[in-house]
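Model: Ready when you are.
Researcher: Fold this.
Model:
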Amino acid sequence: MLKILTLMAAGLILAACSTAAELRPKEGGVWIPAAGKSYDEFFKAANTVMARHLYIVEADSEVGTVKGVSSQNKYFWKEAAGLYVWPTITNDSGYTVYVDSIAGSLFYEQIHDWKTIILDDLKKELGAT
């Protein structure tokens, strides 16, 4: 009986955990001017910024997505953030960036404002204002 209760408790804990796959671009993206920067340069800067703050678990330049988590353990982490870039082709004037973030489970409270941290750092990385 104790084994069954232990398995049920473990199942409930795992069911309460969020995954980085739940991250999605939201409305209210931020326009970052990037005159003279190709999409590849912009996406490389996005990867650099995410790697500076989080462990990258997904990076796909074709769809403009970089996702990271707060721990090297891809199953047990406290926070995750996703950065989304549009358009995914070189644009002469700049790119729209969306940042979404979540806490890892019901047991963790999100303590970082990843949207502000990532966007500010990305602007610095690109030399944008």
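Researcher: Now this one.
Model:
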Amino acid sequence: MVGKWLTQHVNDTNASMAKANARTRGCNLWTRELWHIIWELAYSEYTAEKSLDAFRKARWRLWLDLDDDTRKVWNVKGEMAWDMVKGDLTKIIPPKLSLQ
């Protein structure tokens, strides 16, 4: 029974992913790398906000404060990451995350 559900779920997911036109944005990669700076701003300036709203506001404020050239570099990295996802994923070695 579980196997049948899992098979159906995987098939449904694969079908929906085939229609998806998702992108890995440079902002996403930038956020992943500099989350601690965003976190610091979010919880020092947006203390009256809900946690997710504070983080979101700080993220976009810092992202939009970057100069165009820096954003372009990050967006190119995002495009490269997306191209890797569309390629052969068996050759990708995931990075080890450190929680500092």
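Researcher: Key takeaway?
Model: The chain has a mean pLDDT of 80.
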